[in-house]
Specification:
Number of helices: 2
Radius of gyration: 22 Å
Largest sheet: none
Distance between the termini: 53 Å
Helix content: 55-70%
Order of helices and strands: HH
Shape: elongated
Strand content: under 5%
Structural class: mainly alpha
Length: 97
């Protein structure tokens, strides 16, 4: 015979009650993920530059990879700053300092 389990006593209630709380959880994860992607792309581009030193086409491709990695990281940092500015303008504590 199978009995139902009462989960109300086993699990804590949800702690995400507002959009600001949700952003406090999601934004640092996205920023950390973007930093990891930047690191991988920059290392890949640097590896291509170092290993294909005699091939100018491959070296320029490596430099392009590094350039796009830096550009992507700047976009992520810019969006993070924009969210902070919008939160301050609307007097919403989106992210703690």
């Amino acid at each position: 015979m199978v009995y139902a389990i009462d989960i109300s006593q086993n699990f804590a209630p949800a702690k995400i009650t507002t959009i600001a709380t949700l952003l406090n959880v999601i934004l640092p994860l996205i920023t950390a993920g973007a930093a990891l992607i930047f690191l991988v792309m920059a290392l890949l581009g640097a590896f291509n530059v170092l290993t294909h030193g005699d091939n100018p086409e491959a070296v320029s491709k490596g430099y392009g990879t590094i350039t796009f990695a830096v550009l992507g990281l700047l976009i992520v940092i810019g969006s993070f700053v924009a969210i902070r500015i919008i939160g301050n303008m609307l007097h919403i504590d989106i992210l703690p300092v």
